[in-house]
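User: For this week's homework, look closely at the record that follows, marking any run of repeated tokens, and judge whether sequence predicts the tokens.
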Amino acid sequence: MDVILVPGFWLDGSSWSDVTPPLVDAGHTVHTPTLRGLESTDADRRQIGLADHVQQIIELVDALDGPIVLVGHSGGGAVVHSVADRRPTRIRRVVYVDSGPQPDGVPVNSSLAGDETGVPLPPWSEFDETDLRDLTDDQLQRFREHAVPTPWGAANDGPRLVDDRRFDVPITIVGTTFTRAEMEQAIAAGVPYFAEVPRIRDVTVVELPTGHWPQFTRPVELGRILVDELAR
């Protein structure tokens, strides 16, 4: 099966490198695109928005034959959910890694500081302690050295969802900084981030307790979870 791994903010496709071996060993074909504007710190990202990232992954989907599974980490969750909305009959499953199916029109993360030249990785002091759980000092340093500003539009745009058939696409939510119970509490409280979840017909929740970047802190376990979910 073709598996498309979409990175979150500040990351390129190589961020999945320690996650892919279990998928390859299981016989899957893995695609790890770098989203437009995140090719390098020198990239021109001024005119790039969420819709451009969605279109990039749609083009990849359209170039492939057969069933496809989408995996989106963090801000990449908004991308893969939008792709499922645009190509619901092509997607076998969507996996959200510490993310969720971003609702129509809700900005991905408008709280981040930045401007038209990009949204840089904030100081670590601005993150919750849970986000940074299990990251070593060396990993934090390497992350910051390789981080690329995210396009302003990718963080501040909201998805445009038009096809209710997206609710027929099975999803898996891998919670690393939240539990199933916490997600259910957020749904009950009307938190927009999870507003789409009750409308999706087939939802699996897997808990992988660690920080917000399991591809760095628990990559092998994350890869095995993906293999299991692809087998559903």
Observations:
- The helical segments are 20-25, 50-62, 76-86, 137-146, 152-156, 180-188, 214-217, 219-230.
- The chain has one domain: 2-230.
- The mean pLDDT is 97.
- Residues 2-230 form a domain with the Rossmann fold fold (CATH 3.40.50.1820).
